[in-house]
Amino acid sequence: MTVLILTSEEDVTADMVVVHLNALGVPVVRFDPADLTSGVALSGEYVHGAFRGHLSSAGRLVSLDGLRSVWVRRPGAAAARAVVPSAWLTEESQQALYGMLRGVPARWMNHPDAARRARHKPWQLRLAQRSGLPVPATLITTFPQAAREFAARYPDLVVKPVSGAHPQDPPRAVPTSRVDPDTDFTAVAYGPTLLQRRVAKRADIRLTAVGESLLAARKPADPDADPDHVDVRFAPSTGPWQPAEVPPRIADAVRVYLREAELAYGAFDFAEDADGTWWFLECNQSGQFGFVEVDTGQPISRAIAEWLSRPLPGERQQPLNRTDSVLP
Amino acid sequence: MTVLILTSEEDVTADMVVVHLNALGVPVVRFDPADLTSGVALSGEYVHGAFRGHLSSAGRLVSLDGLRSVWVRRPGAAAARAVVPSAWLTEESQQALYGMLRGVPARWMNHPDAARRARHKPWQLRLAQRSGLPVPATLITTFPQAAREFAARYPDLVVKPVSGAHPQDPPRAVPTSRVDPDTDFTAVAYGPTLLQRRVAKRADIRLTAVGESLLAARKPADPDADPDHVDVRFAPSTGPWQPAEVPPRIADAVRVYLREAELAYGAFDFAEDADGTWWFLECNQSGQFGFVEVDTGQPISRAIAEWLSRPLPGERQQPLNRTDSVLP
User: Fold this and answer.
1) DSSP string of B223-236?
2) Could you list the residue range(s) of the whole structural domain that residue A51 is in?
3) Looking at beta carbons, which residues of chain B come within 8 Å of A167?
4) Distance from A272 to chain B by nearest Cα, in Å?
5) Which of B126, B127, B135, B279 is the best residue to mutate to test the A interface, defined by the most A CB atoms within 10 Å of its own CB?
6) Taking every annotated instance into account, which residue ranges of this chain make up the domain MvdD-like pre-ATP grasp (chains A, B) (predicted)?
7) H/E element holding A283?
């Protein structure tokens, strides 16, 4: 049984996981869907009520029935590097590849449907509330009056995009910024605006969830930092990430979140306040983890390799660390 | 409890359903997400573990908690008709609207995740097989040799797109066409190709499923028709659609399909062969039904209105056909 990794060619984070998969003796096929029709080929046959499918990449042929798991890491758009690329060819190739893969019993990290749903920030906030995670008071609105009333109740606010990255090519991260209390909210009518109570944080928390395994890292906030620098992605570093204990209530809530979201992997961002409360900011279902592993030494890539290697329900388990097996 | 309909302004099929909803005395809010920020407004507040959301359209304000169901008919891209439209504004508005709606307990026809998945033709074919529907032998491939071998086994073939409509603006339907037995399949390597055994059909079948209700219509094939005209959408009409009985085994299989696909609505296309077998061609989760209702008199729009009107689980049922009720 093979692990399929869909990602771009230059992905050192995927390389880290492949090293562990190799050590476990698990066969791996890795390719970028962008290479479909130029290096990567697929075929699926529906005859007499049965389906038989194959993928070929770099001269290796793998049966879709033989897939144990699919890791959707950072795949390119299907057939984007074809000899004559087009929106039509990408759509056809995307449908052919993912349409076939959706029909096989492999386990997904993460399933495309769960991944897509998980990107909705308003849905994330609601699920976090329901899962029992503390969520800073938040408003998403196109009503200027609603924004004004919210700012009166919560004078210390930040504004951030509803959807994440700006869709230019390459996508541009829009920083979270503080909102001046005297802001004129009239322009809110022209586009949905996300306002959130600013958490006066003493640390940033990154919690990486891989199946049931939760690994948290913490980075203290710089006490001398300009309070206008609220976005950790754009703030000067205050030192490396350090491993952190996950409070049991947070662990329970995160597991509820992942189960409801049907996610096998999630990178949670929290802001830790002066009382030690972890405030949920977001969960990125494809968040990077390499920088945390490098700083903390936490075995995230190994946890991912182990999750991807797990046998399917009903599959006869074979010793995973034996590469010299003569069994078929 | 209100029914929310997301569709374009000029949608006479939606009008048919609204007439029935009005007759049932069910409150309806209908708008096009394209009008977000210019006529349609939204707001959602996440405070103290709870969510309160509102939509406003044409001066009417509706609470998201008060939504009974959401009918995703033919909505435009969010904020497409804003004063200054942009890809960024559409993405922000799409996320805000659907992200909030995904968090409320309303019933969906169809849920965006189920709708998206259901568009994958390769997945449809596999699910149809598993559900027990007869599926014509089909190959989807980028291997010329696989195409040649398939054509040798099934010399009477059609070719059709994997993904449906060509993504131009407006989208263009690509007709299903016969494949000459002497075809050179070399070009298959340049894009996934769907080849299917041609069903020598004596009739086209359109089965419209609304919840548990299945309504089938049949149109006999023209016996004098050119056998190269395989696509009913482009063939000259042979007369109106007629109501047809659904064979019990097909009904069972279609219900399995809908349950597995998590679809509340589906328009199934079958080809009926000389033995009376219904061969599954596709299920369009947003297929039109107005033309069938007009030809056959089948109460499809009423079935949709009734499905949308059903109370949520746990909701206190109120008499639906009373508009003079003094209850709140």
Assistant:
1) TTS-TT---TTTSP
2) 2-110
3) 87-88, 91
4) 17
5) B126
6) 2-113
7) strand A278-284
